[in-house]
Specification:
alpha/beta, 207 residues, 8 strands, single chain, 7 helices
Length: 207
């Protein structure tokens, strides 16, 4: 599955949304940053409204924020399939049930410096793990190769316990790193910069 991040497409959002609506991507990946958990901030209210009003794809929301609670309410009324927050920002596991109480799937993301084993005890409570293959906060970074080992370990654990948890990978995804991630066990590829001027990459990775 393909989830497209629009961060690199903000200069012409409506054009790219129309292109993506006519493609066979699975999700729009909405990166939300608060300027605290990561240095950057992202979309304005007007940009979010433009995205929500002009996409026919479900949202895959990625919260790179300190106060997770504060952001959940913003997305429960949209066509949101996943809300993913960072393990490093989690203060209380009750946040998982809060997301699920709105009939939205819950994901947990881990930074490159976080070992994947640290979230094993949460796997039976969530629907998705988002492995960051770059440092969260900005696009255009190079894929961190040991992310593939994390994907493999996580897939083995999920299969061993017969869990229904998707593995998503985000950062530095192109044709090469995308294929390697899928071969390692990823279910969803989050793609941004490399797809901006090359929408055919969607079909290459869907083959």
């Amino acid at each position: 599955m393909i989830s497209v991040s629009l961060l690199s497409m903000r200069d012409n959002l409506l054009y790219y949304l129309n292109e993506l609506n006519n493609s066979n991507i699975d999700y729009i990946h909405l990166d939300m940053m608060d300027g605290l958990f990561v240095p950057n901030k992202t979309y304005t209210y007007d940009e979010i409204k433009l995205i929500v009003d002009n996409t026919n794809k479900p949202l895959d929301v990625h919260l790179m924020v300190e106060d997770i609670n504060d952001y959940i309410k913003d997305y429960i009324s949209y066509n949101t399939e996943y809300i993913t927050f960072h393990y490093e920002a989690m203060k209380d596991i009750s946040i998982i049930n809060k997301i699920k109480s709105h009939n939205i799937k819950c994901g947990i993301s881990i930074k490159p410096s976080t070992e994947v084993e640290q979230i094993y005890d949460l796997l039976d409570k969530i629907d998705l793990v988002l492995i960051m293959s770059v440092e969260p906060g900005k696009g255009g970074q190079e894929f961190i190769q040991n992310s593939l080992t994390k994907i493999e370990k996580l897939k083995e654990e999920i299969n061993k316990r017969n869990l229904n948890v998707k593995i998503s990978v985000d950062g530095g995804i192109n044709k090469d790193t995308g294929k390697k991630s899928l071969e390692s066990g990823a279910d969803i590829l989050v793609i941004g910069t490399s797809i901006k001027d090359n929408l055919s990459l969607i079909d290459d990775l869907k083959e």
